[in-house]
């Protein structure tokens, strides 16, 4: 497989791994059958406890540990620090990881593996774009998991064969050899674009094979052709963040099955014969379909044991509903069984896969939908850990003199916030807006509602949204620039995918703050007021994550909890 890689020192000595103190988390987690009463508690969400981790782990982060009624069944305390050699990892795989990692694990990697290696759920909001630090760690976990699964099957095959030949095969031995699920795929890796899938597959390869091994990767050239770098780079007039995001292979529709063989990685395998699935939400949704559709394929998701969802903040800008639908369909009962029932674990036969599954989520920044996904998808009986890197306030990045107004509306029920926001805007903000105002709308559904109202009321405006054609977009920008239209209304997804510089913006209204805090800074800095820029933010208490991403935790708390509903901030 073609890729530029840093060379490792050929003189590096193998690490001496001790196994005496190792804890077999694989066996502890997957070979434990929950008693009915305990399962009922876990499934119902009873006896769930949350506590804030107060230790030296995860510096500058808020860490919440979620425990279930069954978390005590194995060591699920991430503050009890274990070395890598205490996780019962395959020595060869661990050595490959260290070489691939270009040396010993970083402190952050060691801390993360206290959670991942214990088969607990994890949501990490890191505040960073670079995911390459944790990619080798994920590959270590996945390859070790697949290796343990294969070794157990081979060992039990031998045990059953010997017992059968000797005429000593008993029901007890058969029960001891339950080591499989209802379908072969064990790992589902979901990411937003092919370029990230490309890095993940290469990382798997690096941890699977040592430098002395012959790398047998079937269909590697096809993979390079379809997932490799396209060489595309956005125009230089776009900002650096956008150029980095949209460079390379940004195709968002793909699915790839990988079979993990003893001496080979086989790419482009049928999903039913694969161990690892690498997909985008759109690519997988196209075959999962909807319930009742004749051609839908979903049985291969029946026994997923590890789900990793990378780049959730990017997926939010693509289609969040696709991701939710896929998670809902995972670990259900297949429509037909094509496995040896005597080898299937009891908890799998009882359709308990969701509470044995490990779910790992990564995001660059904090947003409400991610918390909802964690609450609905992370049912692991071992519990989970939610880590949020404390965001740095973005105001110091503002380059324009600014009058920032904050307008809070009261809302006590989340489902009513869209109605109340619309009512507040149309009564208190829209009537006073002047020429040259850009109205930023985060939700497309809010945009449709607002657009229809403004058309009905005869407002002078143009619109920029993600479904607009290029000619209409150019015409709208031109009319706003020439002041033939008073207002311009833009959605967050349009700005995410286009990142156009909108000329002649004299004032800003954030109908709702962007999920991505950088967009706020960019829109303010790109404005063109004659004097001090006037910016208005409409918010409720349910916008706390968006507020803290931009203004910091303390300022967000003050604005949310203040008795005053209007605040103004003046910066030079």
Written overview of the protein:
- With 572 residues, the protein is α/β, with parallel strands linked by helices.
- It has two domains: 26-389, Rossmann fold (3-Layer(aba) Sandwich), CATH 3.40.50; 395-571, Rossmann fold.
- The chain has helices at residues 25-30, 36-44, 91-100, 107-116, 135-165, 171-176, 194-208, 220-227, 240-246, 281-288, 312-329, 346-349, 353-356, 368-377, 417-429, 444-456, 470-481, 492-498, 517-525, 544-551, 553-561, and strands at residues 49-52, 61-67, 121-125, 187-190, 217-218, 255-260, 265-267, 276-279, 306-309, 358-363, 384-389, 402-408, 437-441, 461-464, 487-491, 507-510, 533-539, 566-571.
- The chain has an eleven-stranded mixed sheet with strand order 1-2-11-3-10-9-4-8-6-7-5, sandwiched between helices. Strands 14-15-13-16-17-12-18 form a seven-stranded mixed sheet, sandwiched between helices.
- It is elongated and about 90 Å long.
- The N and C termini lie far apart (54 Å).
Characteristics of this structure?
572 residues, alpha/beta, Rossmann fold, 2 domains, 11-stranded mixed sheet, 21 helices, 38% helix, elongated, U3 small nucleolar RNA-associated protein 25
Described by its quaternary structure, the protein is single chain
Low-confidence stretches: 1-20
Rg? 26 Å
> Into how many domains do the coordinates divide?
2
- Average pLDDT reading: 92
Cα(first) to Cα(last) distance is 54 Å
Major sheet size, sense and barrel closure = 11 strands, mixed
CATH-defined topology of the largest domain: Rossmann fold
| Beta-strand percent range | 15-25%
> Strands across the major sheet, in which order?
1-2-11-3-10-9-4-8-6-7-5
**What is the CATH class of the largest domain?**
Alpha Beta
What's the CATH architecture of the largest domain? 3-Layer(aba) Sandwich
Structural category is alpha/beta
């Amino acid at each position: 497989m073609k890729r530029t890689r840093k060379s490792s020192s050929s003189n590096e000595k193998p690490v001496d791994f001790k196994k005496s103190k190792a804890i077999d988390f694989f066996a502890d987690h997957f070979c434990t059958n929950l008693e009915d009463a305990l399962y009922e508690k876990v499934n119902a969400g009873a006896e769930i406890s949350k506590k804030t981790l107060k230790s030296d782990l995860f510096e500058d982060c808020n860490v919440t540990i979620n425990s279930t009624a069954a978390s005590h069944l194995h060591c699920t305390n991430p503050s009890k620090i274990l070395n890598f050699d205490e996780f019962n990892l395959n020595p060869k795989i661990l050595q490959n990881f260290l070489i691939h990692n270009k040396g010993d694990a970083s402190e952050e990697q060691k801390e993360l593996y206290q959670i991942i290696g214990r088969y607990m759920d994890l949501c990490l909001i890191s505040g960073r774009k670079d995911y390459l630090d944790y990619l080798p760690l994920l590959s270590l976990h996945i390859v070790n998991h697949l290796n343990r699964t294969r070794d157990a099957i081979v060992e039990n095959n031998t045990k059953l064969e010997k017992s059968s030949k000797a005429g000593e095969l008993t029901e007890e031995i058969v029960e001891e050899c339950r080591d499989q699920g209802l379908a072969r795929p064990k790992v589902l890796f979901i990411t937003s674009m092919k370029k990230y899938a490309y890095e993940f597959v290469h990382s798997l390869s690096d941890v699977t094979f040592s430098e002395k091994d012959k790398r047998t990767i079937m269909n590697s050239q096809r993979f390079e052709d379809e997932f490799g770098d396209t060489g595309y780079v956005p125009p230089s007039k776009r900002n650096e963040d956008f150029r980095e995001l949209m460079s390379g292979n940004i195709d968002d529709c793909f699915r790839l099955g990988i079979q993990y063989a003893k001496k080979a990685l086989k790419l482009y395998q049928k999903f039913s014969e694969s161990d690892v699935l690498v997909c985008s939400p759109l690519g997988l949704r196209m075959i999962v379909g909807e319930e009742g559709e004749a051609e839908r394929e979903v049985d291969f998701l029946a026994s997923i044991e590890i789900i990793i969802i990378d780049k959730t903040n990017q997926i939010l800008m693509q289609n969040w509903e696709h991701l939710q639908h896929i998670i809902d369909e995972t670990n259900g009962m297949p429509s037909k069984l094509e496995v040896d029932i005597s080898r299937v674990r009891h908890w799998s036969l009882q359709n308990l896969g969701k509470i044995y599954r490990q779910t790992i989520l990564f995001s660059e920044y904090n947003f409400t939908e991610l918390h909802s996904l964690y609450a609905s998808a992370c049912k692991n009986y071992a519990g989970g850990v939610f880590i949020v890197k404390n965001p740095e306030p973005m105001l110091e990045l503002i380059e324009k003199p600014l009058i920032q107004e904050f307008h809070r509306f009261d809302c006590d029920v989340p489902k009513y916030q869209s109605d109340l926001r619309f009512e507040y805007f149309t009564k208190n903000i829209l009537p006073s807006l002047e020429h040259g105002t850009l109205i930023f709308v985060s939700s497309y559904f809010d945009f449709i509602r607002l657009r229809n109202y403004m058309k009905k009321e005869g407002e002078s405006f143009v619109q920029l949204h993600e479904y607009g054609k290029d000619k209409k977009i150019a015409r709208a920008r031109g009319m706003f620039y020439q002041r033939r239209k008073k207002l311009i209304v833009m959605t967050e997804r349009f700005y995410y995918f286009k990142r156009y510089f909108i000329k002649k913006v004299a004032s800003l209204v954030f109908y709702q703050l962007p999920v991505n805090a950088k967009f706020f800074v960019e829109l303010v800095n790109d404005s063109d007021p004659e004097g001090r820029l006037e910016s208005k933010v409409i918010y409720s208490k349910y916008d706390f994550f968006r507020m803290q991403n931009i203004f910091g935790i303390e300022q967000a708390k003050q604005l949310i909890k203040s008795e005053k509903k209007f605040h103004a901030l003046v910066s030079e």
